[in-house]
Hints:
This protein is mainly alpha-helical. The protein is built from three helices and no strands. Helix 2 (46-55) crosses helix 3 (62-79). It is elongated and about 60 Å long.
Amino acid sequence: EIQHAAPAIVARVNAHLGWRCVGAIALRQGPVRGAVRAPASPVPSEEETARAAAAAAEVKDDSLRASLARLGAAASAARRPPAR
């Protein structure tokens, strides 16, 4: 299906970019590589969660305050050096 639509795909890509940068599409058959998984995000500690909640305590909107506290705790945990 892609091979059949290749001329249209090339034309649309070139039209989108504004110049003829793609001349043809080359389809190659080969083995599919395994998916690369991103490392798991670190879980914020209770101290990081409490510190982030205290920093957002003055925000009046409950939903925004909770979102900012989660964001702050996650950012703090991400900066922590990885455990060995």
